[in-house]
Each structure stands twice: as C-alpha cells, then as structure tokens.
Amino acid sequence: MIIAVCGGKGGVGKSTLAYELAGTLEAVAVDADLGMADLPHGRGPDLHDVLAGRAAPPAAVRGGPVPVVACGRSLAGARAADLGGFGAAVRDAAGGRDAVVDCPTGLRADTGVPLAVADVCLLAVSPRPWALGDALRTRAVARDLGADLARVALTQSETEPPTGVVRRALATPVTVVPESPLLAATLRSDEPLPPVTARAPESDAATAVNELADAVRACRPYHADID
Amino acid sequence: MLTVQPVAPRPVPFFFTGDAARHRVSQNPDATDTSGTTDGHDPTRTVSDPGDDHDPVDTDDGRPAPVTVDADATRLGRVVLVTCRLHNRTTAPRAITLRDELPGPTLPPRRSGVPERGWSGDTYTTVLPPAATRPVGYASPTDGSLADERLPEPPATVVAVDDPSAADTGDRVAHARRELAAWAPPDDILPRRVVADGGTPDDGEAGTDTETVAGDSVGNGTAPPPDPTGGGTDPESFADGTVPTVVAAYLDAAAERIDRAAATADGVQAATDALRDTHHTPVTLEQAVARDEAALRALADRAATLADRAAAADVPVDSLRRLS
C-alpha cells in the first residue's frame, strides 16, 4: 500500500509524520519533496537519480531505524527528474513493504503524482484558518486522483484544538498530534532516530502516531498489497 | 436529432466511414459499408467532401448511423490539422475510439507535455453521452511529399464503439501531470553546462559545471569547489584512470550533444524533447555534432600517438637519482 502524507502548507509537520508513520508501520519513508528535501539524506544515489534513470530504486533506500528513500537536493537534479516513473520507483524501492510518501507543499504536479499513485492519504493540518483552506483543496485533488483520505492529523495543537471544526470541514475523523519535544527531535537529531512509538511508547505523541497508523491499517482490506 | 431506437445488444453496432478491412468488425450484420447518403439530421454538420462515398452510412431503415465522425484535414505547411466531430445518436452513453488514418505520427493536444486524456498512440477514446456531439482535433506532420489528393479520406475513422463502463478510466499520474501546475525549477536558475563548441554564449565561463547532477556530491557539500581555472592539467590533479576535468567536461558535453542528435531520429516528439532545453536548432545541432566528430577523431589520433610516445619514453630514474 502506498500512503501519501500531504497538506497544502509547509511547516505543518508532514515530514515528521511521514517518518514516524513509516517507522510505526514498518514501511519505507519516501521523501518526495523534489525541490526541498526534509528527510535524512545520507550518502548515495537518491530519488533524483532514480527518476532521471541513473540509479535503480532499491539503491536509493537508506538503512537505519526507518528506511528512507532520500531525495536529491540539487536544482539540476530536480529539473532532470521525470515524474512519470514515480509510482514504479516507489514500488520497486519499497520491495513489498508499504511506502509512506512525504509530499511536497503546494498543489503542483509533484504533489499530484504521489497522490495519484497513493492508495490512501493522510492530511496534516495545523489549527490555522489558511491551513484548513489548503487542506480542503488538497483533499479535493486527492479525491480526484483516487487517494482515499484515511485520517486528518491536527498538528501543532494548542490546548483546545478545533477538532470539531476540522472534522466537520473535512468530513473525516481527526487525530490530534500534540506538540511534543519528542516529535520536534525526530528529524533534527544527528543520528536517525527510531519512531516515537519505539522511543517513548507511553507518550501522548506515540499514542497519536499509533492512532494514525491504525487508521491506515484499517484501509488495508480495501487496497491490494503493492508488488 | 434525438432518434429513438432500441438499444442494441453489445457489442454495439457502429458505422464506419472508411476501409472496412482496417476496422474492428461489428457483429451486427447491418453494419456494412454501404455507401450512403449525406446525413441530413444534424444541422451543425459540415461536410468536408460532399457527396463522396465516405459519408456516414444510413441504416437500412433510413435513419442516420448511430455513431459517426466527420473528419476534415487541412494542410498548413508541413503539418496537417485534423478537425473532427464525433456524433453519438444513440440513447445511451458510448465509449468511442477514433483512429488517425494519416501516414505521419499523430500529435495529440497536450497540456504540460502530457497528451490529453483519452489519447494513446494514434487512437483517441472518449465517452459520449446520448445524443451528443464532441469536437476533437489533432495534428500530424507530413514530409511534404504527399499531395493533397493523396491524404487518406477520411483522415480519421471510428474503429470501436464500446460499453462505457468497460472503458479505461485513464492514467491518474498523467491526469495529475496535465491538470496541476508544472513543478520543476525553470532552466534559467540553473547554471549552464559548459558547451565546448565555439561561438556559444557560454564560452565566457571556462570551467566545469558549477552544479553537477550526480546528486550527493553537491547535496552534501562534500565535493571540492570547481577549479575556476578550468581544472588542472597536472597529472597529480586527477585520479588514476580518469582524465583531467577540462577534457572530461568537453567529452561530457560532446556526449550530451551526440545523445541529443541520436534522439532526434526517433520522431518529431522525441526531437522536440531532445532540443527543448538547448539553444540548438536541428541545423546547428547537426553542425555541432559534425565538429565534435572531427575533433574527437583528431583527439583519438593524437591521444593514441601520445600514449605510444608515453609508453616509449623511459625516464632514467635511477641514473638521474644519483645526480640529484
């Protein structure tokens, strides 16, 4: 199954959620932000090389507590990448595992193509009016491209998150992901970290990530396993 | 315009306007190519070639054929523009497949470089609602050798009419690439690759790429900065088995030009793609590759001669060591 983590605006915690979710689901995290990579990079061929036909997809998978398909960080590499091969590359790199794709911000073709190849998507929304508007637009595109919305993750939540408003607007169950130093550290550590569900299984953050993972697992009967 | 008629058992009968041998054959015995009269039921219809034997045939009972295409070809220089009207006169939606009959490659309408939904090779499949007409257009290049009267008539034919529920829902990735804005960084913000042939605008910046496309070397900031003098020619500045940066830069640039030149042979679309991001026209590319060929052959001769001399040259290390 391919799971896309999306949300219109940047800075709502998409990359963190994608990494955490991939770790919790024992899946491969794919950094699809072709222009502005977030997930740990390491050395070796990356998604730019794969999409330009210079490397085999499995070669772009970095080991570690959470396997990551790294994305290149050069503009020339982004320019040379051909989005047409994205779905096949992700399936090949995942090698039978699930893949959690960290989508870029905005609603251009580089967001649409991961949504088009994804079976389900998760929307990351922060409790700001503009974020909700972007989430609505992203959901409409995801629906158009055949990605079912599994869950909405309400990130960076204040003391009283507007869960009801978001749930009514998007007509989808909402999981509140609390502000947490554990999550803040996920992508900022020098060494790649295991997911919060393994680091601190009793924490509120782990509970939220587990809830998102369960929502994704609940979609599995409706989607064939990826090759 | 709306003709009430019983819905036929599937596969649906269809009526074609061209060479029967090239069509998928309908199982309806009525769907034979009997030269018919001009369809008078559709006031919007334009007849490209009135009175000829390619007009939509009528059924035996005098009603117009349920699914027809009016296709008209207009030559514009070396391109033929084809305008079609697809008609579905049945009372049910129909998935209709149209085929380009022109000899050249089919150039379908594109958005963001991706053909519009329904196009695949030289066929176009669309679902038409009952009693509807849809315009379809495409182009096809010609080499100019085909006279007007030799253009296939009609230029496009209906080759299949199917149940729409079985029709392909379309490629979602292609849909996303068509419908959403382009995402790749524009050419302008990228450093130009060194172009080693003379007289190009890039000659001022001698040296190698300021950004490689090899991925991790730039991404991690671990690659040494490019030598502003264009790379050393001192053998100590390059690793065993490699060539100096300036030589490699020329060879890479020549290889890219040769790749592009080779790609242009694969049809108009491939040639367009190959030339899209360059300053080359087909003529200048051919000239540049011809110069490359001459330079590479001269280089190969000189390199072979020098390599032989290098092998033969014997520095008397031991004797000279005693002198130093």
- Using a beta-carbon cutoff below 8 angstroms, give the protein chain pair with the largest interface and the number of residues from each chain: A-B, 42 and 28 residues
- CATH topology grouping of the domain at 2-32 and 99-222 in chain A: Rossmann fold
- Summarize model confidence as the mean pLDDT of chain B: 70
Say which CATH homologous superfamily of the domain at 2-32 and 99-222 in chain A is assigned.
P-loop containing nucleotide triphosphate hydrolases
Q: How many DSSP H or I helices of chain A?
A: 10
The strand order across the widest sheet of chain B is 6-7-3-9
Q: What would your notes on this structure say?
A:
The complex is a heterodimer of chains A (227) and B (324). By secondary structure, chain A is α/β, with parallel strands linked by helices. In chain A, 39% of the residues lie in helices and 17% in strands. Chain A contains 10 helices and 8 strands. In chain A, strands 3-4-2-5-1-6-7-8 form an 8-stranded mixed β-sheet, sandwiched between helices. The model of chain A has no long low-confidence stretch (mean pLDDT 87). Chain B folds into 2 domains: 20-179, no CATH class; 187-323, no CATH class. In chain B, the strands form 3 sheets. Chain B has a 4-stranded antiparallel β-sheet with strand order 6-7-3-9, with no helix packed on it. In chain B, helix 3 (245-263) crosses helix 5. The longest helix of chain B is centred in the C-terminal third of the chain and has 31 residues, at 282-312. Chain A binds chain B through residues 34-35, 37, 41, 43-46, 48-49, 52, 54, 72-81, 83-84, 86-87, 104, 106-113, 115-117, 141, 144-146, and chain B through 112, 172-177, 179-185, 187, 189-191, 209, 211-216, 218-220.
